[in-house]
Amino acid sequence: TQLLEQSPQFLSIQEGENLTVYCNSSSVFSSLQWYRQEPGEGPVLLVTVVTGGEVKKLKRLTFQFGDARKDSSLHITAAQPGDTGLYLCAGAASGTYKYIFGTGTRLKVLA
Amino acid sequence: DTGVSQDPRHKITKRGQNVTFRCDPISEHNRLYWYRQTLGQGPEFLTYFQNEAQLEKSRLLSDRFSAERPKGSFSTLEIQRTEQGDSAMYLCASSFIDGELFFGEGSRLTVL
To answer: Residue B43 is nearest to which of A31, A41, A101, comparing CB atoms?
Structure first.
């Protein structure tokens, strides 16, 4: 059974601080996605990474896929209140389009 | 096309009753997914379709859950003999070839 564990589960920080969210598994994924979800809405895709060691940047967000494609991280620089939300990683094993979601990290950025 | 739509948005039912949710995906998307989400947790995979074929169903589900996508377009998720533990948000998503999942706003189920 594929499991994606995210850490930390909760994070409350002040505006301007940096943070890193981790997504770990014992399984290998062909691709890994990061989503953000706000209350009352469905998750919205932020990025997809497919190559081991890949790094992608989206403004103040930096995403990295582990060399072995079993883990990923999301780093936010100078967090803003608008970054508040539930961050989710999701992965699919090779040869399948079954996306399994991580346990989630709830981020709150205080002004 | 305005995205993935789900109906109803909210459903309150008594334990033991049957409920059905509908999902209309983005029209050109061939894959459709159902997930269940409880407060503050990540979505839990239930099942997914490619066109009208149901490719996988979670072993976590009992036989009370069934999903269909009869013509490869809209899908329904039925829960029979609901239990209080079924209370959750039921999310539908669709995708095309590149794998990005587009989610609807969900159907919230409350079982009394």
So the answer is: A101
- Amino acid, res. B109: L
Assign A1 a pLDDT band (cuts: 50, 70, 90). low
Q: How far apart are the first and last CA of chain B?
A: 36
| CB-based contact, B44 to chain A, within 8 Å | yes
Task: For B5-54, write each residue's pLDDT tens digit.
Answer: 999 999 999 999 999 999 999 998 999 999 999 988 999 999 999 999 99
What's the mean pLDDT when you consider all of chain A?
94
Please say whether the beta carbons of B61 and B67 come within 8 A. Answer: no
Residues of A in contact with B21 (CB under 8 A): none
Report the 10 Å Cβ neighbour count for A33. Answer: 24
Burial of B6 (0-12, 13-18, 19+ CB in 10 A): buried
CA of B44: which chain A residue's CA is closest? A101
Interchain pair A45, B95: CB under 8 A: no
The per-residue pLDDT for B19 is 98
Q: Which residues of A touch B (CB under 8 A)?
A: 4, 6, 31, 33, 35, 40-45, 48, 86, 88, 90, 92, 96-104, 106
Q: What is the pLDDT of residues B84-111, one digit of tens each?
A: 999 999 999 999 877 789 999 999 999 9
**Which tokens hold the place of A89?**
């990683």
Distances (CA, A) of A93 to A69, A70, B12, B76: 10, 10, 36, 26
